[in-house]
């Protein structure tokens, strides 16, 4: 009887989660389409009144690739979106960063695969900036069964990018890990055709905004299996609904639809034009091919074990400045238990998960890393654990310094910034406060982004050669 009760509760939770997430997704998509249609109608009326008319093939431009080419006089700030995110030009011009990019006149917002792996997104980000055809790497492409080459940028958005013309990177959520892996690839000379000319010094600063630096327990709550290293999903879970939806989306391959939004799996060749109905069955029913069969997508990278695998090969470099804003929407009761704080301020997508993450306990053995404690991972922002967001911790602790609020001396402290150290602050916010809807973030939205842009423009100066040794703090 007890098993039936738990099964019923699990089914009810899955149903509620699916309805809330799908409802919000359709709301965002519908809002974007409505705004775009309204703008087109207004433009048509204005053009009609002047005798111009509207072109029959007018459509939403998904990229405008050459428009943001910069001269390198001032290092640009590159905002990198997280999971289910999008770049400039998608969703009818909706801003993932809620218009924060307007705070500076040299900001780029790349459009990367919203569900592709951290590795694939890091490769896409390089070619978005430098230009050329995206090369996912021969060895990686063979291992995970997808095409080696992706989209082509005829002209990069920052083609002068090099050691003398570095960039500032700001990554939200999974975007923070994309940036870190890209910097490691630059250090390793991992981009064929550049003759080892790339360097970690191409990156002037890295800012993690609610960044998934050490994974998230939510990945397991949503369906990833902890017992196999976070590589596969349970048969009935929220992520399975995501899998079915994204596969069908790519199989239908409707250009007008993908112009608005794209999960980023084109290099897996799942289009109906290529694989037909039989190919759809292989991907969707038999799980014989595609990103979900091979594990080359974002969720395995967001488990604690997946983050540890990435972190094991990614360093904190002594030539780069590192900042982190860790969000938290939980508080401690008198007994020490973590509970969601200010529940009316938590985004509807996140409230249930915030509560679940407070109570979640790692169910498998051995633990995901040496020294793991469930209580360390209780505080969260509804999507990521605050413990994970401050700085890289697993499998090795990286150098870090906590910074107080600016009004309490944080600004004075920042004037003595040193590269190669993670300066982190904990802000009271949920995971959605700094994206999509600026009004939800309120005053804190501007305070945080003003602080980020201020760091990039005022505090970060590379005026001396870096020390010869790097990082993690082995102690």
From TrEMBL:
It holds the Pfam family Lip_C. Residues 76-192 form the Lipase-like C-terminal domain. InterPro entries: AB_hydrolase_fold, Lip-like_C. This is Lipase-like C-terminal domain-containing protein. It comes from Setaria viridis.
